[in-house]
Structures are given as structure tokens and as C-alpha cells.
Amino acid sequence: MTKIVTYKEGRLDKYYIPALLVGLKVTLKQFYKTLFLGQATTINYPEEKREYSQRFRGEHFISVDPTKTENCTACYLCQTVCPADCITIVAGERPEEENPFGVKKEKRPVSFDIDALRCCFCGFCEEACPKDAIKLSRNYEMATLDRETAIYDLDHLKREVKGRG
Amino acid sequence: MTLFDYIAVAAKILFIVGLAFSTVPIMVWFERRGAAWMQARVGPNRVGIFGLMQPVADVLKLLSKEMFIPAAASKFYYNLAPAISAIAPVAAMAAIPFGSYLIIGDHKVNLQIASLDIGILAVLAFAGLEVYPIMLAGWASNNKYSMLGALRGSSQMISYEIALGLALVSMLLVYGTLDLNAMVVYQDQSLLGFIPRWGVFLNPLAALIFMISIFAETNRLPFDLPEGESELVAGYHLEYGASKFALFFFAEYVAMLMASGLFITIFFGGYGLIPGMGWVLSFFQTSLSPDMFQNLTAIAQIAAFVFKVGCMMFFFVWVRWTMPRFRYDQLMHLGWKILFPIALVNLLAVALIIAWIGV
Amino acid sequence: MTTSEALTKPKMTIDGQVVEFEPGDTIMRAAERARVDKTIPRFCYHPGLPVAGTCRMCAVEVEKAPKLMTACSTPAADGMVVLTQSDRVRKSRSGVMEMLLANHPLDCPVCDQAGECSLQDYSYEYGPSKSEFKEDKRVWKEATTKALSERLTLNMNRCIHCERCVRFTEDVTKTNELLMDNRGWHKELTTALDEGMFNEYQGNVADICPVGAITFNDFRFQKRVWFLKEKVGICDGCAKGCSIYADEEKGTVHRYRARFNAEVNKHWICDEGRMSFHRYQNAERVIHPLLSASGSLNATTWETVVPWLLSEMKKARRILLLIGTDASSEEAATIAQMLPSFSSADFVVRSWNGTNGVQSSVDDAALDHLLRRRDHTSNTRGIESLGIKPWNSATEQNFDLAIYFRCGRATLPPVMAQKEIAWGVFDLPEIQRFAAVLPGLSTLEKFGTYTNCDQVTQSFEIVVKGPGGTASVRKVLDGMKLKSSTPVREVVRDTI
User: Fold this and answer.
1) B321/A27 Cβ within 8 A
2) If pLDDT is split at 50, 70 and 90, which confidence band does C40 have?
3) Which CATH number belongs to the domain containing residue A68 in this structure?
4) Which of A103, A116, B221, C346 is 20–30 Å from A131 (CA)?
5) Half-sphere exposure of C196 (CA within 13 A, CB side)
6) What is the reported pTM?
7) Can you say whether the dihedral through the CA atoms of A12, A15, A21, A27 is positive or negative?
8) What chain B residue is nearest to A46 in terms of C-alpha separation?
9) Distance CA C260, CA C269 (A)
10) Residue A132 lies in a domain
11) Among A97-101, B91-95, B114-118, C287-291, which is the least confidently predicted range?
12) What are the residue boundaries of the structural domains of chain B, listed by start?
């Protein structure tokens, strides 16, 4: 419920000075609070870190099965749904040795590139994935020194991520 | 003049210039951290203890950057502007007394670089020079933003100098002198026995007008229109970088220092002791020789001066992080239609009262 | 339409719409004729194949008939009233879909057919959202990925036993390579011989497969079909000139599919033609102008090569203009008429084919009973109709300059002159003997007409943009007109 607060202009408001004094009081009060009571809201980033929600969407990864084979079957659904057009997949035949469990998986991604610089972290790829292969971890520290590193290849995506990171 | 006099003058100059040079980094640091504290932030706290070395790092960075002159700039005036900008306020401080006098051997050393009878006029003259670097910088940069900033700056400074001058004249009537030292001595009495006879109590209206005017004169918020970022990028010093920008930056804080010194000299008793200090000093009166007691008093006066200036500087910062910026027409409206008439009426009233009671 | 004609044609009603049909039509055929067949789903029925009636998906309600009738096999009768969307019909289709889906794997994301899959579409439209089938699905461990031949891969899990592929090899190619082994639950598609399939039309099997059971290796896993844009084209692989769809994405053609053309190719195209688009998308194709300098061909610009060509044509006294029989009729006519006007030399305009020893349409012959021809160029008849004769390399000699224009599979002719210029589509290994190469547009990149071996003239449209610095004939000639000092006869518009 929004409360509408109205302010009736008094006679003193015409001369500004009282209002200015009120303003000065506010800043001085905050000055005192921050300096002596330590009430700064700043998070000292590298030492302290903000606790993000469990649903935070950060750096991508591709889940793997116990034999370290990616769950991805190169279905292109993520590439299709991606609004930023940042996923590029090249599909191919999966070699026989990567099919240890009864049913043969036909298709695999030969290459799977995500351009993190184009990605808008909407999570549509995660939602579209029928194999729960592509996921967004909770890692948000993705700064790189060059653009090439920001284009994640399959090896990088298959890195070990515990839970959602 | 004897050798001693030369040494004394050199020492005083060193003191004032040293004060200016040490105030600027501290003020830069305090401006940033003070802003942070008023906004419930932490501010720069990484370089040195409490981030105190931050301004040093900033200055090192500015000094080591490339000195770049835009191709279309007028080179001579482009280089001249920051120099004038830095020199003028330091020179103006020469006439401001920061203590009564020291007695060293049989010499009496006035704690004022230039003891001028017309000290206030000298200060005003040097402070008035501050318009030139802004105008020169804006014009010489050959940049539209700079030019607009310079036009705003100069017209604003000239407009507010009138109100400032009128407020000052009313105080000159009260003190009956142009000598800043004499003004301080005048104020070093008490009014009705319990409050100091400071200009601010004698004529609070003039103090208010004077204070508003010095905010405008030093281009500080809420009157920092010459460098209004939202419309002028950086105003008159847009094309300046490296050490030339550092000089403008330096000048802003020295101007603040000078304006604060002038303001407290006229309205807050200058180097006059803060109530209570005299009481503390009186304990030493018997145990010290009269000369040594005078020296102790002078040191206390310097401390009082520095303390008062410090409070005034804090006020500058405090106001900056509280007030929003004026619109330019509002600024002119305030200067010409409000402060100017009030200052005139104030002057007339002061003159009539003085004529009536004949102080 | 006169009254007498209307009386002679039999009529039936499909979903309240009165349609006419030819005597002997089935309900499906009548619906197709009237273009109302979209409401009749089908798996085993294909207009190019004999009717089998095995899938029961096309069952429709016929008034006065006690049971649902299969539209594909029930002959249409005068006055018949057919309902294709009644509750009974929809319930029947839902039942059929549930049976088909009982064993069909849920691997649409992996399946190449997804997006153009009949089973997927009809499942959305008619299928039940839940299955009563609780048991494990039948899984073919060996035949999950099994090669039917070098060109085809079979995934038996996805097969719905429509037998279109079997009927194709029986009735279209008449090679009988495919058959269904066993019955019921164990029914499996196999090849008759261990060597696998051997006919030259295998790609059609992948095309007609309603699900993703049979995939064509050249396209398998290359692209999801929903990314592709369907463009109309003509295959220029041989003199037949089959109608095709060229499916393209972002300037790259990914596959050809047969486009129905009753006069030329019906529903089919051969494998050679199906894969022929690779010829224009290989890395070896010359896509920037080349000019020889100090013994080697160097990359240059059109601004340099066009004035150079003009000056060479001015210098020469006798010029041979050789037009490959794979040029479109428009290109050939334009070049043959315009180019001589840039020079006062003695111009000889001839055509060149050279594929399989064919020079003119007289030498051409069919390679089999279906589509393939000996002549591997697309427009031999069209060039002939322009009056351009084949070049007799033995008798016609002594040229200063020769310009060879070709856009497709015409071979390199024997040495024509001291200085030879290649214009059109060439690959790097072919160009060593030429003094200059002017890259032109292939069938995919231009529009024009081809006249095929049966005198059927077809037009084709631009599918993709020409790569690199390739330029159309029109552009090159415009450039030459700008650079040439003498006025040029305007003949192009009048003749084409």
C-alpha cells in the first residue's frame, strides 16, 4: 500500500534558509553516524562479498556425467532461444567410446562457444535445455584481460562447478 | 630592513605557502571522505592509513601525465591561465594576519606577511584576479563548453562581487578601518560581557551575504555553474589535463582557504582567541615572563586561526554535499534581485545607526 | 466453365466444400487437387509413391459408410460427403498417434527432423498429451545409428514403419534395396544386401521419411531446420535442371531438397545434384579478380582488370569468345551481343560443354530411367537456341585472345589462344593457364533461365549473395561501358 505524503508549503519555506538548515542537519547527522557509529552501507568488495540469491545467474557451465562427458547433445535449443545470439554450436557424431551406458547418444557438440561479452544472462538457455546441460552458476567474477578469454569454449564450460557455484 | 627582518618575512611566507600546500591535499582527502561519510559510504581508504595518501597518489598521477595542449588552443593564454589561477589566491593571503606578534630577542615580528593599512583592498584586488584565469582558460581552450563555462564563471563572479563588496563596506563602517589587523583587534573585545565582539554578532546580515558571496566567488557548490558537469562536461578547465589541471584544482582549494581566512578575519575575530582559551592562558601569566607569555599567546592565536579556518573549510565541504546546484537564472536572480538590494539596505541601515550612535 | 463441362466432372463434398475430381481419384487425391488436403494427416501416403494404407492416419469419416475410411486408398465417388475434422476422426487420429508414439523416442532436440517432422506436427495437432503406455520403450541397440549406405544413416528407434522408403526403392528407383524384416514389435528396416544401398537417389529417402529415422549424411547434424530459409532454385548439376529448394542461412546454402515439378523431376532429385551446392561454397573458388603479372596470378581489383581487358580486346585482331553451356540464357545472350561492340576485332562466339564428351544436345542421353543425364551442364539447349554453335577446336584456331565464360560444370577447353581470360566460376587449381580471372556468379547467386534437355525453360532466383568480389555479368559490362571511350550499342534490352 503506497502512502501518499503531501507537503504544504509554509511561509518560512519561501525564504529557503530554514529548509537549507534542515538539509544541513540531515547531512551532519549522517556524517556523525558514518564516522563515529560506523554505519556505512559500503561493502568492502574484495574482502567482503555480497550474498547473492540462490537464483543468481552468473557464469555459464555445462554439466557432465560421471565419465566427464558433457550432457549436451548439441540440440541448438539454447542457440535458438538466445536473444543475444551469443551461443555458437557445431554439432557432430558422438564417438562410440563416449557412450558407456546402454543407450547410444548420437549427437555431441564438437565446439560450443558462449560469448560472455554478448550474453545478457537472461537464463533462457538454461530454461530451454532439455538435458539440463547448460546452466548458469552463481559466479559473477568473470573479468578477463582480453576478449578471447571471455569467449568460453567447451573445455572451460565443462569445468567442475559444485552445486550452482 | 635588517637581515632579521628578511628572515622573518621569508619564514612567514614559508608558513603561508606551506599552509596552502598542506591544506590542499588534506582538503582533497577530506572532501572525498567527508562526502562519503555524509552519504553513508566509506570513501577512499586504500592508499595509506585512512586513505590519507590518496591525494599524494592523485598528485603524482597528475604530475606524471602527458602535458597536452589542444591544437586549436591559444598556447600562451592556455598556459598562463592556470598559473594566474594558482598565484592569485596565495598572494591574497599575504595581507591576512594569522596572529598578533612574536617577540624574538628585542625584535617584534608581526604575524602577517604584509602589514598593510589598506589590507582589505589588497586582498580584494588579488581575489578579483581570479576572474581572469577562468576567462582566459575558457577562451584559450577554443572549446564551446569551456567558453560557456568561462562566461558563466566570470559573470557570476562579477555579480557576486558587488554584494560581497557592499557587505564588506558595511563592516568597514563598523570597524572604521581598512587594516585587517586592526579589525581583529577591534573584535578581540567582548560584547555585553559574555560574547566576543565578532562581526557576525554585530551584523549577522552582512555575514550571511558575505558568506553566500564567497561561495559564489570560489565557484563552490551550490554555485559551481562554471563547471556544471551535466551541461558543460567540466566547464572552463575541460581542455586541461596533467599538472595544469592540478593547478586549477590547487587554486580552488587555496581560494577556499583564502576566502575562509578573510571571512573569519572580518566576522569571526580572525586570529582572536576562541572564548575559553584566554582563561586557560591566564594560568601561565604569572609563571612566564611577559615576552614569553606574548609568544605563547601568539602561538595560541595561530592555533585559533587554523582552527577557525578549519571549521570554515568543513562548512564549505558540508554545504557542498548538502545543497543541489542552482540553475543559472536562479543564481542571477539571487545575486541581483535579492542579495544586492539587501546588501544596499544593510549598508544604509549600518550607516544610519553609526551616524546616530556615533561609534 | 460451361454447363456441359460441369456436368461431366464428378463432384464430392469435403468438409462442406464441393470439390471436383477426375474419375479414378482417391479421396486424398481429390483433396490435393482442390488444395484442401491440409486437414488430412498422413504418414505412409506420398503423392509420388504407390498407396499402402498402412498408417491409418488419414482415416476420414465418409457419410453412409459404417467405419472410417482411409483417404489415401478409398476411391472418390460422385456425391460422396467426407468429414475430415469430426470427433470420430479426431479420436481415431489421437489413437493412431498414441500407438505410434508408444515406441517413438522423445529425442526431438537431438533429431534432425525436428521442425519439419510430420509426427511432431500431428502430435501437436491430434496427439494425446498423455500416454497409457507404461512399459519400457523398444530400443534398437544396434540400429540406433546404423549406416544404410555411405550417404544414409538409419536410427531405427525413430521409425514408425510407414514403409515409404521401401516403396521408393521398389517403385521409383526399382532397385529393391530396402525391406522390412520381421513383424510387429520387431519390425526392422534393413538393406537387402550387406553392402547397403547403391542407387543414385538415396537422398530422396531421407526427404520422404516422415520422421528422423533416415538422415542424409551430407546434412546430418549440420543445421537445425528452423534456422534455414527455403529459397526456390534449379539444380545445375546436369541437363535435366531439376527444381529444388535451396535451404539457406546467413548466406550459406546448407542443403538442396527436391521441389515438385511435374514436367521435370516430379518429387525427386539425384544425390549428385543434391550435394552439388558444395561446388560453389568451397574454399578453392576464386572470388576476387586475378591478373597475371611476372608469371603468376595476383589479386587485383575490378578497377584494374576491366580497363586491362578493354585494352587487350582493342589490341587483339581475332578474338574467341567461348561460352560454357552452363551460363544462363540471359548471360550468354548479353555477352555474345555486347562484348563484340567493345572491339573492332574479328569476334568468334562459340559454346563449350565438354562434360562426358558431350558438346551439343545431340550427344546428350539419359543415364537411367529417372533423371540423370550424360550432359552435366545446365543450359546446352538454351545456348543452342540462341544460335551459338559449339566450338570445333580442331578447325577454328589462330586467335590472339580468348575469353572463356563458364558458371558451372563445363570442362576446361584445350588451348584456345596465346592469351586466355577466365570469366565466371573457377577453382584455384584450374586457373594456371589464364592471364586473368574475372570471378562471376554461380546459379545460387544470380537469376536467369535455363532450358533443360526436354526443352523446358525454367527461371531461378537469387538464393544467396555472391561471395567476396564476385560480380554479375551486367555489372562487369556496365563497368566496361563506363571505361570504354567509344559509344556502345544498346542491344541488351531489345533482345532479352
Assistant:
1) yes
2) very high
3) 3.30.70.3270
4) A116
5) 11
6) 0.70
7) positive
8) B46
9) 10
10) yes
11) A97-101
12) 3-357
